[in-house]
Every structure is written in C-alpha cells, then in structure tokens.
Amino acid sequence: MAVNDVTPTRWAGESEPRPVSVVLTWLRDKVRERRRVRARRAAFNHLLTLDQSLLDDIGVTRDEVTWGSYLPIERNAAHEVQERARKRRASEGWITRRTR
Fold first, then answer.
1. What pTM does this model have?
2. Domain ranges for the chain
3. Can you name the residues that pair with 19 across neighbouring β-strands?
4. Do residues 64 and 88 touch, judged by C-beta distance below 8 A?
5. DSSP secondary structure of 28-82
6. Greater confidence, 1 or 66?
7. How many CB atoms lie within 10 A of CB 85?
8. What 3-state DSSP class applies to 3?
C-alpha cells in the first residue's frame, strides 16, 4: 500500500478525509486547465497582430478584439468576441438569420 493512498487530507467543511492521491489528481487537473486557458488566450491575442483586412475576413473589428483581450482570463475571449461581432453584424443588416 502506497503512503499517499492512506495519508488523509481534510478540507474545511468535509466530514471525511481525502487521500492525498485524490488531492494531487485534483491539483494536476487544475494546473492542466489553467495551461489550456492561457494557451487559448495567447492564441486569441495573436489576433491583435493581424492587419485590418484579415480581421475583416474573419468578421471582427480591431475594437472587438481589443475588448476581448481585456476580458478576465477565465472567460473565453474568442466566444465572447464572436457573439459580440454576430450581434453587431445583425444590427448592421449583414445577417438575417443565424447559419452554421
């Protein structure tokens, strides 16, 4: 039996102790998710380096991309900007219905 399987860890408000392996698994998953989020934001921030004609082809404005770059990192900036651009285009008459 491994030591980390029997060493209990108790969090505030928990009645039963957790094995250290469960806590380490939880921590590993949180670190992986944080890395994914940071990589996703770095890819989004690359849009700031594109010229206006490419942004037009994508369907977003520089202002929308700049706005998205200031969102909290926990929010998916690409999804937020996509929705904002869709609403803008709809109000400008570019979109009559949502297509996929």
1. 0.65
2. 18-91
3. 8
4. yes
5. HHHHHHHHHHHHHHHHHHGGGGS-HHHHHHHT--HHHHHHHHTS-TTS-HHHHHH
6. 66
7. 20
8. helix
